[in-house]
Design the sequence.
């Protein structure tokens, strides 16, 4: 039962850990899957570059997990092509795809100890026992669990289980790693630490990685690129920075980062919103009605005389919430649209405004994002 | 069941009497136990209820499964039963064990009883016979007529069924082995006698398809045509034949046995129970009972005076013509040897 | 909490209600124990006392004196040993056949969507709703000489003479397997349902074929359910009475049949109790051995 495809690669954990394994690109073309009348994947095209960390981000039901399962081979699509490098795999059984996979609930084998879990893929590949022991230990070191080999799975904490699952997924040096919300079961602090560890591990291994999450912060933290999915389609695919700064659509802007949206109107090359003239790097080409995106941390509370060269709004404070690292100020603009501002709380920062007080809010021109209204979307 | 209305009225009667008995000392009450089923129903209608009416008492009926139940009650000193119906062998052993009252034959008149059917502890109620029966579809009218035929698998090929318990199992084997009926118990009492019978049964074992363990079962086996030849109780076969089973039997070399009534040691109403036994031992009661099942009276007078139809009488096991062909079961032999014989029989069965 | 305990806790204690709170805790524990009391009482009255009584009876002879008579008889007569052997052979065979049929059945059910599985489960459990006697009798009607199977077999020319399908060990096994199957399938199905499907996906992604994944992951994880079901079936078989009595044709004498026979013969619970005590003892030994063995074989841990 030896799966084909791994003979030509150099063995040895050290080599793998040094990232000498050639990374494979993944090419998805016109991939579709429907359950009855409900389309979960709608002619998806996706290119994952060799060695890239790509995150599939989207709300539940957006198709991100379905897409991952199709790549892993656990879900048979209705049509389309999936290629790993040059090889067409869309009809290949999952055990022949040579993929390292990490599951949401870890999927560790409860009847085996840690070393047997991690050694599982190596035993399948008939690797010699001493070689297995060496590579298992190396993988365990990589995930910072050296010496845990003889532990039972139920003796491990959530974070440790996550690392074992990771070690098991990388020990056989797959050229593609898939992760299905691997951190969602961890508490917030551990999750944030693991995000950074995973990212560092990826940088060392250089393996093509597809990562599924519904947590936009996680996606921003870890990814080379993010593909935002909505209703079975890819709404946007780009670097975290580009997506955050130029969401391109209201859906993406809503889903990534916090935002307030206000109505804007472009007429004769001039844009107005909430009674102010708005300057932006780029105005929507089509003109007419559009939406302005206000990121809370990009808004400034202006003192008298400030605001030169900024887009400015008159507003009234409706609430102030102290959140430790930031101060969240809620306000309404002149036209009644609610907005939120996030202010730094470090020493020397401006004193918190009083509820009911009139304030002036500023937004730098380069931070100003205007979205053309999508056809069919209600204002 | 053409007698259905009677059943209903007697149940109603029993119910009313049961209610009345809640009030103490209105009338004396006897508790009678038997084996239930159609057998006890017949007893109730032919014996218990009419006798109760005649004596002006009330009867409470219960059912039980074996003398072991009574043994427990007596040992525990909690006897609530006044009269128990029993097989003759069980009663004889229970009597020798001391859990039954000795019967007073000055009260119970057994002068016209068949010989041997009134023991110290138990008075006979009906006579039945363990007979050789056969499937008339297999053998037609020329069925086997003796135990030798039962053992003759060349002349009568076909599947046999034999009793799983030892009671009534050794006697036919000896007769088949050429022992005359009147010498059977003599041979069985001699050393090696039991083994001789068992050896003969072992010979037939490959042809025995089913070892039956209850009367209901052996009747069903014949009804279903599962076997071609069988031993069993005559009354059951008559009932099966009436239901359409292709079965016939012969009294020839049958083993005559009887059911009887006894009084447990320490029965609450011993004297009344004695009077009750005297009443139901009268010929008119026994004659009435034959209407429910083809078991014969122990009281020979029951055959007199036309209480039993003459043609019907000839089909009963205790009719003189039939009685002459049969070997009466020897209870003394069973008291002495049954445990030993049973052990040997079980060893043969499990070989 | 009752009104007076509230009052007591509110009393003028100098130690912050320490004593009163402790009292409350005791009362609560007593209350909980009280909840268990009816069940405990039932177990004692309905099970332990009769068992102890039977145990005592088995050491008394007919006269009521202490005696090993009943045990001595069991050693002296070869039929008792054979009866025990038959009992264990039939029980073991029933258990093995139940596993061979029940494991794939439970596996199939566990892989179905829940709604379909529930429907199928009803079919598996259907026999539970009819009486044991009726089910056993149904087999008799089907398998006997003039039964449905033989009638059709001969009509279709599959065989010429009626086959002996019942009144033997084979017929007994058929009946017992039919009755016992749900007892195996139920716990096994529950265990299989609880096995995380991702484990098999994980195995598959790591390179194992479906067959290999089944044997290295699914099967080891289903063993606790299999062990529970199999020991349940085995132990229930040991005490079986009706089916061997009706379908065995008197050739399959199990211990419970022998107990009935001995009660009839000796009028006496002692002999029967002794059989019961020995069966219980052997059963316990077998179960303990089985538990030891399965732990030794490494139900958990070594696999592969």
Sequence:
């Amino acid at each position: 039962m030896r799966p084909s495809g791994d003979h030509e690669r150099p063995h040895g954990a050290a080599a793998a850990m040094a990232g000498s394994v050639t990374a494979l690109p993944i090419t998805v073309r016109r991939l579709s899957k429907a359950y009855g009348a409900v389309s979960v994947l709608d002619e998806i095209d996706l290119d994952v570059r060799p060695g890239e960390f790509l995150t599939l981000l989207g709300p539940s039901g957006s198709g991100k997990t379905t897409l991952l399962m199709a790549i892993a081979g656990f879900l048979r699509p209705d049509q389309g092509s999936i290629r790993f490098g040059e090889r067409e795999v869309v009809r290949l059984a999952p055990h022949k795809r040579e993929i390292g996979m990490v599951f949401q609930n870890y999927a560790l084998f409860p009847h085996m100890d840690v070393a047997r879990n991690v050694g599982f893929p190596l035993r399948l590949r008939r690797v010699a026992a001493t070689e297995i022991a060496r590579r298992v230990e190396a993988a365990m070191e990589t995930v910072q669990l050296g010496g845990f080999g003889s532990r039972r799975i139920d003796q491990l904490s959530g974070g440790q289980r996550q690392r074992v699952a990771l070690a098991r997924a990388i020990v056989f040096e797959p050229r593609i790693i898939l992760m299905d919300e691997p951190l969602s079961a961890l508490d917030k602090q551990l999750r944030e630490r693991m995000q950074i560890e995973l990212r560092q591990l990826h940088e060392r291994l250089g393996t093509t990685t597809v990562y599924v999450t519904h947590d936009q912060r996680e996606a921003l933290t870890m990814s080379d690129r993010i593909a935002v999915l909505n209703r079975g389609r890819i709404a946007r695919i780009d670097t975290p920075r580009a997506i955050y700064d130029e969401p391109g659509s209201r859906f993406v802007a809503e889903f990534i980062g916090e935002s307030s949206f206000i109505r804007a109107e472009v007429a004769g090359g001039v844009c107005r919103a909430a009674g102010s003239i708005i300057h932006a790097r780029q105005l929507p080409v089509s003109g007419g009605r559009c939406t302005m995106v206000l990121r809370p941390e990009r808004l400034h509370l202006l003192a008298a005389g400030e605001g030169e060269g900024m887009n400015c709004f008159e507003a009234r404070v409706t609430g102030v919430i102290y959140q430790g690292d930031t101060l969240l100020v809620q306000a309404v603009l002149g036209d009644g649209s609610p907005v939120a501002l996030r202010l730094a709380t470090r020493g020397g920062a401006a004193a918190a405004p009083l509820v009911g007080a009139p304030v002036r809010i500023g937004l730098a021109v380069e931070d100003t994002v205007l979205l053309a209204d999508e056809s069919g979307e209600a204002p | 069941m053409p007698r259905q209305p009677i059943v209903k009225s007697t149940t109603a009667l029993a119910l009313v009497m049961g209610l009345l008995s809640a009030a103490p000392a209105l009338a004396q009450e006897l508790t009678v136990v038997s084996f239930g089923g159609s057998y006890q129903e017949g007893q109730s209608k032919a014996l218990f209820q009419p006798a109760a009416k005649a004596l002006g008492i009330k009867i409470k009926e219960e059912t039980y499964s074996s003398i072991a139940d009574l043994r427990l009650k007596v040992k525990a000193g909690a006897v609530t039963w006044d009269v128990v119906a029993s097989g003759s062998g069980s009663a004889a052993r229970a009597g020798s064990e001391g859990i039954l009252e000795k019967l007073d034959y000055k009260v119970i008149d057994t002068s016209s009883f068949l010989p041997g059917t009134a023991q110290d502890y138990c008075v006979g109620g009906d006579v039945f016979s363990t007979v050789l029966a056969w499937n008339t579809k297999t053998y037609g009218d020329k069925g086997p007529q003796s135990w030798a035929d039962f053992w003759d698998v060349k002349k009568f090929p076909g599947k046999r069924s034999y009793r799983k318990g030892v009671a009534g199992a050794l006697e036919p084997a000896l007769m088949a082995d050429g022992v005359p009926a009147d010498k059977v118990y003599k041979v069985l009492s001699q050393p090696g006698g039991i083994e001789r019978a068992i050896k003969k049964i072992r010979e037939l074992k490959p042809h025995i398809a089913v070892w039956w363990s209850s009367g209901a079962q052996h009747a069903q086996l014949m009804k279903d045509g599962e076997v071609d030849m069988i031993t069993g109780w005559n009354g059951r076969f008559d009932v099966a034949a009436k239901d359409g089973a292709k079965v016939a039997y012969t009294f020839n070399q049958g083993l005559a046995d009887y059911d009887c009534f006894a009084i447990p040691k320490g029965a609450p109403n011993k004297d009344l129970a004695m009077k009750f036994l005297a009443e139901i031992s009268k010929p008119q009661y026994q004659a009435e009972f034959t209407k429910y099942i083809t078991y014969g009276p122990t009281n020979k007078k029951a055959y007199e005076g036309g209480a039993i139809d003459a043609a019907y009488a000839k089909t009963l096991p205790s009719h003189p013509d039939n009685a002459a062909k049969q070997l009466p079961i020897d209870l003394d032999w069973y008291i002495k040897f049954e445990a030993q014989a049973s052990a040997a029989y079980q060893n043969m069965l499990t070989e | 909490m009752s009104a007076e305990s509230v009052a007591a806790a509110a009393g003028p204690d100098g130690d912050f209600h320490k004593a009163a709170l402790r009292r409350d805790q005791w009362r609560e524990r007593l209350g909980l124990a009280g909840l268990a009391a009816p069940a405990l009482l039932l177990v004692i009255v309905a099970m332990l006392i009769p068992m102890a009584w039977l145990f005592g009876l088995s050491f008394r002879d007919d006269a009521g004196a202490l005696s090993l008579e009943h045990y001595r008889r069991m050693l002296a007569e070869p039929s008792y040993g054979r009866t025990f052997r038959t009992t264990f052979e039939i029980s073991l065979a029933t258990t093995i056949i139940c596993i061979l049929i029940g494991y794939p059945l439970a596996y199939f059910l566990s892989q179905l969507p829940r709604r379909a599985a529930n429907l199928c489960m009803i079919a598996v459990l259907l026999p539970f709703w009819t009486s044991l006697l009726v089910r056993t009798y149904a087999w008799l009607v089907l398998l006997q000489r003039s039964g449905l199977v033989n009638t059709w077999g001969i009509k279709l020319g599959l065989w010429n003479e009626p086959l002996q399908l019942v009144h033997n060990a084979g017929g007994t096994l058929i009946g017992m397997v039919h009755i016992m199957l749900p007892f195996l399938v139920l716990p096994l199905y529950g265990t299989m349902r609880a096995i995380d499907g991702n484990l098999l996906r994980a195995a598959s992604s790591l390179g194992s074929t479906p067959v290999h994944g089944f044997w290295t992951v699914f099967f080891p994880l289903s063993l606790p359910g299999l062990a529970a079901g199999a020991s349940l079936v085995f132990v229930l078989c040991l005490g079986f009475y009706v089916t061997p009595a009706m379908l065995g044709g008197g050739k399959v004498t199990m211990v419970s049949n022998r107990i009935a026979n001995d009660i009839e013969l000796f009028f006496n619970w002692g002999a029967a109790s002794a059989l019961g005590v020995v069966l219980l003892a052997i059963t316990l030994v077998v179960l303990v051995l089985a538990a030891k063995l399965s732990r030794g074989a490494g139900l958990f841990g070594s696999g592969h």
